[in-house]
Structures are given as C-alpha cells and as structure tokens.
Amino acid sequence: MAKEVTSRAENYSQWYNDLVVKADLAEQSAVRGCMVIKPYGYAIWEKMQSVLDGMFKKTGVQNAYFPLFIPKSFFSREAEHVAGFAKECAVVTHHRLMNDPDGKGVVVDPEAKLEEELIVRPTSETIIWSTYKNWIKSWRDLPILCNQWCNVVRWEMRTRLFLRTAEFLWQEGHTAHATSEEAEAKAYEMVHVYADFVRDCMALPVIVGHKSPNERFAGALDTLTIEAMMQDGKALQAGTSHFLGQNFAKSFDVQFTDKEGKLQYVWATSWGVSTRLMGALIMAHGDDNGLVLPPALAPIQIVLVPIYKTDEERSAVLAEMETLKKAFEALGHSAKVDDRDNLRPGFKFAEWELKGVPVRIAMGPRDLQNGTAEVHRRDTLEKASVPVEGIDRYVHELLDDIQKGIYVKAARFRDANIRKCDDWEEFKTEIQKGGFLLCHWDGTAETEQKIKDETKATIRCIPVDTVVCEEEGKCIYSGKPSHRRVVFAISY
Amino acid sequence: MAKEVTSRAENYSQWYNDLVVKADLAEQSAVRGCMVIKPYGYAIWEKMQSVLDGMFKKTGVQNAYFPLFIPKSFFSREAEHVAGFAKECAVVTHHRLMNDPDGKGVVVDPEAKLEEELIVRPTSETIIWSTYKNWIKSWRDLPILCNQWCNVVRWEMRTRLFLRTAEFLWQEGHTAHATSEEAEAKAYEMVHVYADFVRDCMALPVIVGHKSPNERFAGALDTLTIEAMMQDGKALQAGTSHFLGQNFAKSFDVQFTDKEGKLQYVWATSWGVSTRLMGALIMAHGDDNGLVLPPALAPIQIVLVPIYKTDEERSAVLAEMETLKKAFEALGHSAKVDDRDNLRPGFKFAEWELKGVPVRIAMGPRDLQNGTAEVHRRDTLEKASVPVEGIDRYVHELLDDIQKGIYVKAARFRDANIRKCDDWEEFKTEIQKGGFLLCHWDGTAETEQKIKDETKATIRCIPVDTVVCEEEGKCIYSGKPSHRRVVFAISY
Q1: pLDDT digits (tens, 9 = 90+) for A213-225
Q2: What pTM did the predictor assign?
Q3: How far is B57 from chain A (nearest CA, A)?
Q4: In total, how many domains does chain B have?
Q5: What's the sign of the alpha-carbon dihedral B199, B204, B205, B206?
Q6: Could you list the residue range(s) of the whole structural domain that residue A316 is in?
C-alpha cells in the first residue's frame, strides 16, 4: 500500500490526522492555524453545502452576504458577546504596505493606520444586526430569514484540521422575528434541519438538546445543539442553533412597529454548521484502511479498476467499463474509471479504500468472458462476483444499502456506548472509558464546573425529544434533587 | 410608483446607484467600502456562480480552498506582483483585543502583536503557489486545475457598489502545467468560457482580446480580457485570464521532473470574474423603470399579480394563479404569486418592473370569465392578452424570446457604437461621446500613456477572433506603422 495509515487502536488522534492528509482532504498551510482544503475534501464539503442549502431554502431562508470586517466598537455593544468572541481574533490595523526604506521587501506603512481597527468576523451577529436596523420598520418587514456561506476567523491556539482551525468555512443563519415564540420555534426548527441532515446525509445519529447556561453561545438565551459520538467515545458538537432573545436588537436598537402601532424590539436567532462537519464525518465512519464515505456525500460513488496484462485486454476491459460508467451515471451516480497505466490494481484498490469510495468494481479478461464483475463495498469490505447484466440496478441498490448500513453501524455503536450512571465514583472511572453518560444534575453552574474540573467531562446537552431522560432522581455530584438526566461526555 | 429612479438621461451614474439600492440588490455597509449583498442581489449572483461553476467543471477544473491570509513576505517574492497588489490592502497586525484599562470598550492588546503581519488576500497566486510546491514533483502531477470561490480585499479609495468595492466576491482559477503551450491554451480557453457565459447567460456581447503590456495583471506575461459596452458607451472589463509564464513557479521554486527526468519550472495561469459582473448586468440592460434581467439569471422569472375587489374574487384569482405557477414550475421556471393584500396592483407592477422580472402576468375576474390573462414582458414593456389554455408553453417560449431579445438589443447598441477612427483630432472629440474606437497604435507604452493623459481613454484590448482589426495602417497618435487596430474606450 502506498500510504500507511496509523491504526485507530494504536493512536486514534494520529489515525485521524493521517486520514485527513493521506486521503487528500486538507493540509496545513503556510499560515498558522489556517488550512488548505484540497479538491477531494472540498468536493465533499460542496455536497454538504448543496444539500443543506436546499433544506434551508425549503424553510424560506434566503442567502445574502455581509462584510468580512466588523468595526471594533460593534463588539463592545453586546457585553457577553465581546467576552465570548472579541478576544482572540484577527485585527486589521493598517491599509497599506510600502517598500522597506532599508530595501528589504515591504513593511507596513505607519501613515496608513485605520482610525478604528477592524476585526475579521468570528461570527456576524453584530454587523448583521447593525444592517437589519435599516431593513426593519414595521411588522410587515418581518420575519427576515437570511443565511450566508462564508469564512470566519477565530484565533485558536491549538488547531486541528477541520476540527479547530483559525479560519474555517461555515454558514450562519440570522433571523429576525416579531415574537419570542416565533424566534424560539425557528431556532428549534433549524437544529432539527441539522439533525435530519446529519442523519440522512452523513449517516450519523445525533442527540438534539439544549446547552447548559455555561455552554451557551455568547449573547444567547438558549443554545440548541446536535451532539454526535465519535469512535473513541468522545462527543463532537456538530451544529448549534441559538435563540438570542432581544439582546442584539437592543444593542443595535432594532425596533419595529407592531400591528397595534407600538414600537417593539425584534427577536433573533442564529444558527451555524461549519467545515467541522468534515471532521465528524471522518472520525465517525473511517476505519484502519481509510475513509468510509456515505454514498450521499461521496464525490465518487463508484470506481472501476481494470485488470489486464496486454494492451488488447486493457482496451477491451476499459471499453466495457466506459459502458458501465454511463449506465451508472444514467441512474444519477458518479462513477470514475481509473485508467492510470503506471499503477498496479492492488495499489489502486488501497488508494480508493483510503479515499472511502463506497463501491469498487474490478474487471479483468476472465470477467469479460464470463459476463461478470467483482463488486467490493467499502463499508464492510465484502466482495461479490456479480453478472454485468443488471449491474447498474444492483449497484444502485447497493449504494442505498451502504448508506443505511453506515448509519446503522454508527447508531449501534452510539447506543452501545450510552449508559445511565448514578454513582459519582463509578462516573469518574466510566467517563474515562468514553461514551455518553446519562446522569442527574442539580442544574447549577457550580456543580457543572466541579465535574469538569475533576473529570474533564462536560454537559453536552439537556436532550429534547427523548423520554428516556425524563425521570426524577438525585444529582450525581451534589445529591440534590433533579427532574431529568443530562448527557455528560468528554468532547472534542 | 413607490421608488423613483433617476432617468439615465438625467444622470447615468445616479441611475445606476438608484437601481442597485432600490431594486434591493446591495447597499453600503457600516464598514467603509464594503457592501452588503441583499437576498435579491445574492440570488442573481448564485445563479451566475452555478452556471459558471458547471462550465469550469466541464473543462476539468476542481474547486478547493486556500487561506484568507497571506504572510507579508510572500508578496516580496514576485517583484511585479508586490507593486501591483501589496500596496493598498488590509493588514492584520494583532490577534487579540482586551478590555480598555480606562474602562471604555475594548482595545488592541499590544502584547498580541504578530511576528509577521498577514495580508488579507487581494488575489491568491502567492499562497497557492507556495502550496503547489508541495503538490508537484513529477509531470504525472500535472496539470493542476483548481478554482476557489471566495472573498478578496483591495483597499480601494473610491468605491461603487459591485463595480469597485474594498471586499468583493469572486472566483479565482489557478492552473499549473508542464508546458508553456498548454498553459497559454488554458488561459485562452478560460477567457472564452467567460465570453460564452456573458453572451449566453448575461445576454451581453463582449470583445475578447489581449491587454496591452501596460494593463496586464501584475506578474503576467499575457492578460486576456473580455470587454463589454455599457449604455453610456463606456467599457467595462468583465473578466480576465492570465498567462503567468514561470514567474510564480520561480518565485516559489516549483519544479517538476519531466518525462526525460529533467527538472523544469512549472507554467501557470490564473483567471477570475467577480461580483463586478452584477454591475455589468445592471448597467448593460436596465432602463428608466429599473432592472431588466435576462431570464437565465432572474431569481423570479414570472410574477403573477392578482386583480380583485372582493374576497371572493381574490380567492378565485389566486387559486387560478397557483395552478399556473405549478404549470410554469413544471417547465423548469421560477414563478411567484404576489398575494400581498396591502398593496395596489399598480404599485406591485412598478415594483416588479424595478426588480426586472422578465414576465408579469395579471389576472382579474373578467380574465377568469374569458379564460385569458394579461402577459407583460419587461424588456419591451409590451402587453398581450393571452388564453390561459396553453399559457405555460406560451410563456416558456416568451422567456426564450426575451433572453434573445435582450442580447440582440445589447449587440445592436454595441455595434452601433463601435467605429473606426484614423484622425487624432477626431479621436479627441469622438472618444468623449462614448463607444469603442478602433484605431491603429504603434505598440509603445509611451503612446498609450499620452493618449490616456490627453483623453482618459485606454486600450481596452487588442482583439482576437476578429479579422476587422487586421489591417495595415498608421498609429493615430504617433503616425508610426501599425499592423492592426486596437480598441480604445473610456472605461469603468
């Protein structure tokens, strides 16, 4: 095999890095903390974008674009927001370079200092609400449902490709409503759009829930989250949706005249998912041979690898493969014939396994004679000899099978690693084994912090949509009464 | 009418600004020189992106993503490039804010100064070629055909919405090739992709040609351009494609082993179009009533406006309109029923004209009785009473007609305003009238500069694909011999 991948058992973290780099998804750039997303990785992100964008638009959301830069003073307007975001950020202070008077390259022109510094957006609530002020006068102007696909920058000290980078790509939705109820419903709707997307496209089950007050978005009254379990049992927050109340409307003085003619502050939500989803996809499904991509997100769903010795054999097999490729494409699938003539089939097999292509088809001269092909599915690594006659329908159904199979595997793993825990000593050992622990909590920030300090575990969410957690009990740490269990885990 | 638009005759420049703002395409933001692209404007840009992206991919190009920031030192590597781009730019010098010790908001933390300043990309040749160095070892790694859709920042002093803004959205393609011939062919191919897109989607004819050496992209050996004529006779550069030779490969030491085992520098191209295309679209086709959108780029192709007095009439007309909407959508068109009940039909008519919707359909109770509808086409402002039976096919063909009609109108205007000119005194008066002048030029930068100084006219391009310009003559300014005419105009 060309590129060795560290096994998960040996070093899960190194396995992840190997997959990202060796499967050509992304790499570190010359700029600290910023990544280059390579074509194969970007093609997966484009598929995610395309599906999500369609789902957003179905709910009435429209795309727009707001400035990359935010005046420094905007951050001071919302007190919690500045504490949460304005601290570690990229600050633009000048707008010109000049030739170095000493003759060495270019230097910043001290004359070109900005009157007010600009922050490269870490998130856009402030600039967007300063804009909404001009868009909203009456209840007839509401709701406003905007989304933007863009880059944001947060000056992270420790970065990891896709999971935590200084610059990342994301979408941020920002909605404005006439009532609290409508805004809360929108935040709830969007976190479920995320959950549906992650389940149906990424083949990954998530738990939908509220963040504890400690873990809320800076400036939010409520943060909803989707939490996914990775193969090492850690939690990964895959998307969030915030009910912002009237905080930003008040900070930027955005009021509307209601139907009764009274001035009221506008209600807000914001919600986002990012290229972090790529990290979730890789970590949830990959194996020691490489990526395992759900067909719904695979840039190449079917790869065809010819086996031959002579030029005649090569031509004959490739001709048949081009026919098959067209048949697959006619059913809406993406297929690629790997006709590189300088690589052995075994090398190609390993490479496409590393890249997670769901279905591989190999054919040689004997297959041509027999009217068969060898069909290999990436998720289970199973092979079957299949008649070429009708292979297009066979693969069509196989892809569907793989999509479902990947989900079922992830769901079984997740369910096998969620357990109730009611004893603090047990908690301390159990939590280190990975997985989610459903525990009672007294609802205080102090208890939450103490548990985090002692075990590194955090409350991932207070689940909605599940009755399993709705029961009376006593806080695992303080012993005080509790009305429902919450999800504890160690997280990315 | 709700929103008055300045007429073109009165003030063309104000007319443009009115259209951009009043048709809800874009507006100035709180950040100097940066615009907000509003949902209606962004929907047009998304259509442009979608079509262009498909055209790029058909030529083998893949999307990727490279960092927003470029280390300052990278700009010093390519001498011409630094002169062209690094001067007016956004410079990130710090990575943290802190609470103001005086208690007033936040200030830049002086402790958090970057070792090396980062430039917000004005264009990405430098960061991309520093990346390509790691991707390219052998001739088998070539060609590399990457494109990215992203934001860039150039610190413009005088900005205009879409036409010249500090931040704008664009795509930038960057390709790497084994031979000079292949790179030149790619640059040529991509400028023709742009020309085809602008002609077929934007309904706008362009002249394809080479830039004079003076007007080349900083670091290019050749710049190809598409030049469009606006209704005031000025030229607008709508897209460029550069043959970069080995300049960036040499600056970033990108070499490959060729088939003979020899080390060679890689050959490069880059090419881009931006949200400036929005400006071209508006200025080329709009009229005194507002935008005129070619159906291929209209977010709403058909708007249905009900006419009624009573609630019963309203219900009946809206029901019929919903049926029509579905019929239009079944033919692949986007349609909207304007069911707002607080606005008069006349107001709605004016609003959709302002927004450039290609087809408007009005129906009232009498139409219902007669089985007819009033169909209005935006480009010619003509109305016709059309039987509802078969109206879906009628409108389908009408949209095609409108797309062609808008192109033909623009092409006729353009052709009527291109003329040969062989006399310098005549040139000086003629050029002020607008339009393109085809003139002989002696090929020197000095002459070009003198003509610019005296008349503000520049050489827009040295056309390819046209025999009209291939003739012997004498330079209009210096009288020296010339082998072909070039295009002079005053430009945006």
Answers
A1: 989 988 899 999 9
A2: 0.97
A3: 11
A4: 3
A5: negative
A6: 295-408
